[in-house]
Structures are given as structure tokens and as C-alpha cells.
Write a structure and sequence with these properties.
The protein has 561 residues and is α/β, with parallel strands linked by helices. The protein contains 22 helices and 18 strands. Belongs to the bacterial solute-binding protein 1 family.
């Protein structure tokens, strides 16, 4: 489902958690559940001084012609837009890219984020060497810590000294003022290279969904290669092994969640019920992802709803009752993964990719480790809603002004990284060489060797997207569970008022998100009284929220909504 490509209180787009889900890289969720900036950022918006909007229906002539790549068939087809599931790895892989795309042999420069320790570099990494042999040249990655990525991008774009391939997640784009101007100045217009049948030399790029390509358009130009997103901002995970020990069941109502807070917290044993859950609580109370219309047709922002106030009050209760891990209380941006995996946090939210990533880490460390995801629920046990994200959550840009033959080589590299599950290329950039970086388990699933664990990181994965798939069948029951969950979620996605409209929000409106969220974090932790929420909402309205409402109302009106 297409969504609104903005950030903060105006968005329903994907975030870093949902993106990292797709590559299995994961990242630290915003501890304490930042109510605005962490979970509703945009796929391709950014902010401009005045704001702008483009309907994706008007972009047809700019987009590549979709041509499906007939690869391995899924065992569990996705329903209503959910990703297909593969319960086993294919015994025979197909070669999708016949020839190395970089004919010149000239080294490629690229910048990508990483939420893990950096692997050995070019020249000291046999995994890199194996992929670069297929590519035809070395890819020299400038790997930047994902948490700091947004801070690095602003100065980099201002300097103009960018690499040939620059990966920019949507949540970082949405925080960059005047990004539309930077796009024109720094990045190549890919329309002449990829629009329509021109994409045919790059069949893996042609296999990416049209809805994702539409979100790679800025200023009526195709400016990037998109990374398709499953549109699921996060899942609420629980330690099934720990809950089974005390006979606890996953929650189906807010009352259940409150009871789990009491039952699972035991500070003497260094176990707390919750980490970050605030976004899931908002969703459970029926808070909209961004805007909704009231009975008079007026746009109402999520933070102006009574449901939002109820959700904030409940999360505050979890903090005040001591059910939240002390490190989360002290640091709203800390990494909760070790706390969850170590059993100190029992329930927390994170992106879909953290599930498989965590199982990979824990299967040898703690064989009894079990985690599952909670099926989305409504606070009162009624019909839930699930916030829907954009069809693309990250973008790779090509440096402007390069010769046409070099642009073709770089698009060839992105064609390589877009190879789907079941291809030699996908296997190689995920797992390296068989017998060296991984071995086959009896089930046929790859298992990383010590060398693979050392050298492999999601670097090529961050260069460009590939079709969605649920594939890590080496974890018993995982593919089946994730497939069932995604299919269930697809049935209750919230209707997005701005579906199919890419919006670049006004800069003044974008600047409201972080200050407001800081106040909400203080309310959670008791540093501000609950009554301050109404004060913060009023301040938000007077300092630009009401003007933002007028802007978004005009966007809807201009598009006949």
C-alpha cells in the first residue's frame, strides 16, 4: 500500500526498523517508543520551506516497465500485499546476471549505513572479493554507523563531495531540509536510463514493483533506485521461553498487557516486562498513523486525538510502576537487543528483521531461546488497525555528471544487488561462498562459518532493493509464523488518506516533531505531569501544526479528496 512520505506527526511511512527487517540487519529500536519521530517517518519525502506534493498516478511516464523475473516459486504465497514465504532453500540456484556489469574494471565508491561492527575492508575480505568478481570491480564502501547516518548526511550533501552510489534511508531523507534542491544538484536523473523499456538491460531492476519506483521520483524526475518495503513499521516481540515458564500468554487487550507488566517484572532477578512498546500501545488504542478526518471533514492529527492521550497515559503507567527496564528509563535511544536477548526485557517492539537476526545469534548461544511476535490487538479486544507504511523505505542515488557508460555500470551494480531469492547472486551477497563462508545444514539452509561471521555484513544489501521474501527457513517455524502474521496484518491495515501521494512536508512543520516527542518522553518518565500533554499539543498547533493542517488539507483537496 502506498503511503504518505513525510515524517513526524504527518506520516505513516516506514522507519529504520521496518527497512532493516528486509535485509535482516536490524537496529536498536527507539527505547521507550518515541511516539512521533521513530515510527512514522517517510519513504522519500524530506522537507521543503513551503512543502510540495506529487500524485504517483501522474508519474507513469517516468517509471520503469515492470517485467517479472520467473524465479523460484514460494511455498506460502503472500496475501493482500504480504511477502511470499519460502519454507526451504532451493537446491539449484539460477544465475540472474550473466556478465560482470563493470566492464571498465574501475573501482566503485559507495556509502551505506550499518548497525553492526564493520567487517574487514576491501583487500582484506574474501566475501568482498567473491562479490566483486561477479561485479567486475571492487566496491569500496564507506560504512557509517546507522545511528549516526543522518548526522553525517547533512554535511556530506552540503559539501557536494559524494560517492558514486549513495544509500539514503527514507527516515534520514525526511529530516533533511530542502532535500528536493539537493536532489537536483547532486544526483543523476535516471529517467533517460530506466523509464519504460529503457530498463530492459537491467532485468533485476525491472522486477522491482512499480509502486516502489513511484516513491523514487523527485521534481518529476526518477532520481533513485528504491528499496521495496513490506510497510510494517514494527512488531511486538516477546520471549516465549520466559513467558512459558510462568504460564503467561501473549496479550490480546491492553488489560492483558498491564497484567503482564505485573507478572513478568522481577527487579531482584533483573527481569522487567517491557522495553520499547509505546508505538504498539498507540496502535492498540486506535491512534491513527498520521491524520484522520473528523465528522465535519476537518483533518485531525494523531496527537490531537483522545486515543493518543489514553496511550500516553498507559505508557506513563508502565514507567511509573517500574515495569520498564531501568536502562530504557535512563536512555530513550539505547540498544535494547542485548537486554531482550539476555532475558532482562521480556516484551519489546522492533522491526520485522530483528526476528531472524536474533535467532541467528542465539541458536548457538542459547538453544532454548524462543521469541515470537504478538498478533496485533485492539485495546478492548475489538478489531485492530495496523499502520501502513510506504512501498519503498530506502533509496540509492547515483552521482550527477558521470559519463553515460559509467552510469550504466553503476546501474548494473544495482541490478546485481536486486537479484531475488533463489539466485546465485542473492545467495552470494547474503552468505558468500559455500564451503568457505557457509556450509549447508541437513535442511539445505546455509550456516555461516567463523570466517563468514567475521567477513559478512549487510553491505551489498544496502546498495539497492530486491523483491520482498520471507526466507530464513533455518529457524524452525519462523517462515510459517512470519507469513501467517504478515497475511493477518495485511487484512487490517489502516486506510491512508494520502495513499498514492508523495508529500514533502513544510520545513516549519517538520521541525515540530522532535521537540514534541521530547516532551512526551518526559511525560512517560514522570519528569513532566500528564497535564503537560495538552500544553504540548497546543504549542504544537500554534507553532506550525495548524499551518501544517492547512497544507495537508490542500493536498487532499488538490487531489480530489
Amino acid at each position: 500500500m502506498e503511503g504518505l512520505t513525510v515524517t513526524g506527526t504527518g506520516s505513516s511511512g516506514p522507519n529504520r526498523r521496518s527497512f532493516l527487517a528486509l535485509v535482516g540487519a536490524g537496529t536498536a529500536a527507539v527505547a521507550g517508543g518515541a511516539s512521533l519521530t521513530a515510527c512514522s517517518d517517510g519513504g522519500g519525502g524530506g522537507s521543503t520551506t513551503a512543502g510540495r506534493a506529487e500524485a504517483t498516478t501522474k508519474m507513469t511516464g517516468l517509471l520503469p516497465k515492470y517485467t517479472a523475473y520467473e524465479g523460484v516459486k514460494p511455498d506460502l504465497p503472500g496475501e493482500n500485499g504480504a511477502a511470499p514465504g519460502f519454507t526451504k532453500y532451493p537446491t539449484q540456484l539460477t544465475r540472474a546476471v550473466a556478465e560482470p556489469p563493470v566492464k571498465s574494471g574501475k573501482e566503485v565508491t559507495a556509502m551505506t549505513p550499518l548497525w553492526a561492527p564493520a567487517p574487514p575492508g576491501l583487500g582484506s575480505n574474501s566475501y568482498y572479493a567473491a562479490n566483486n568478481e561477479r561485479i567486475g570491480a571492487g566496491v569500496r564502501f564507506n560504512i557509517v554507523n546507522g545511528i549516526d547516518y543522518g548526522d553525517k548526511l547533512g554535511p556530506l550533501l552540503a559539501s557536494g563531495n559524494i560517492p558514486e552510489l549513495l544509500c539514503i534511508p527514507g527516515w534520514n531523507i525526511s529530516g533533511l531540509t530542502r532535500f528536493g534542491q539537493a536532489v537536483d544538484k547532486l544526483f543523476e536523473d535516471l529517467t533517460p536510463h530506466l523509464a519504460g523499456d529503457k530498463v530492459s538491460p537491467y532485468p533485476m531492476l525491472a522486477n522491482l514493483p512499480t509502486s516502489a519506483w513511484a516513491y523514487a521520483v523527485w521534481n518529476s524526475q526518477l532520481k533513485a533506485v528504491p528499496f521495496p518495503s513490506d510497510g510494517i513499521p514494527w512488531l511486538l516481540y516477546y520471549r516465549k521461553d520466559l513467558m512459558d515458564k510462568v504460564g503467561a500468554q501473549p496479550p490480546k487487550t491492553i488489560a492483558d498487557l498491564e497484567a503482564l507488566g505485573k507478572q513478568l517484572t522481577d527487579a531482584k532477578r533483573k527481569q522487567w516486562a517491557f522495553g520499547s512498546i509505546a508505538d504498539e500501545v498507540q496502535r492498540a488504542y486506535g491512534v491513527p498513523a498520521g491524520w484522520r478526518k473528523d465528522s465535519t471533514g476537518k483533518l485531525v492529527n494523531k496527537i490531537e486525538t483522545p486515543e493518543f492521550e489514553e496511550a500516553v497515559a498507559f505508557v506513563r503507567k508502565t514507567f511509573q510502576n517500574g515495569w520498564v527496564h531501568p536502562e530504557v528509563v535512563a536512555n530513550s535511544g539505547g540498544d535494547q537487543k542485548p537486554l531482550f536477548e539476555g532475558g532482562q526485557i521480556v516484551i519489546r517492539q522492533d522491526g520485522t528483521g530483528t526476528w531472524g537476526e536474533t535467532l541467528q545469534r542465539q541458536q548457538t548461544i542459547n538453544p532454548s531461546f524462543q521469541m515470537q511476535a504478538v498478533l496485533p490487538f485492539a485495546h478492548d479486544g475489538g478489531t485492530p488497525i495496523v499502520w501502513s507504511g510506504d512501498p519503498a523505505g530506502i533509496f540509492t542515488f547515483v552521482k550527477k555528471g558521470l559519463p553515460a557508460d559509467r552510469i550504466a555500470e553503476l546501474l548494473g551494480v544495482l541490478n546485481y544487488t536486486a537479484a531475488p531469492f533463489g539466485t546465485e547472486e542473492n545467495q552470494l551477497y547474503n552468505y558468500g561462498l559455500e564451503g568457505k563462508h557457509y556450509t549447508r545444514q541437513p535442511s539445505g539452509a546455509p550456516k555461516l562459518t567463523p570466517l563468514g561471521q567475521k567477513e559478512i555484513a549487510p553491505t551489498y544489501l544496502f546498495l539497492g532493493g530486491r523483491p520482498l521474501a520471507i526466507t530464513t527457513s533455518e529457524y524452525p517455524g519462523y517462515v510459517e509464523s512470519m507469513s501467517a502474521l504478515q497475511n493477518a496484518i495485511a487484512k487490517v491495515r489502516e486506510k491512508n488518506l494520502f495513499e498514492g501521494i508523495r508529500v514533502e512536508q513544510p520545513a516549519k512543520f517538520a521541525a515540530l516533531a522532535t521537540p514534541f516527542d521530547d516532551k512526551v518522553q518526559d511525560i512517560y518518565r514522570g519528569r513532566r505531569p500528564m497535564s503537560d500533554l495538552k500544553v504540548a499539543v497546543k504549542e504544537w498547533q500554534t507553532k506550525g501544526g495548524d499551518a501544517g493542517r492547512d497544507f495537508y488539507a490542500k493536498v487532499l483537496s488538490d487531489n480530489g479528496r
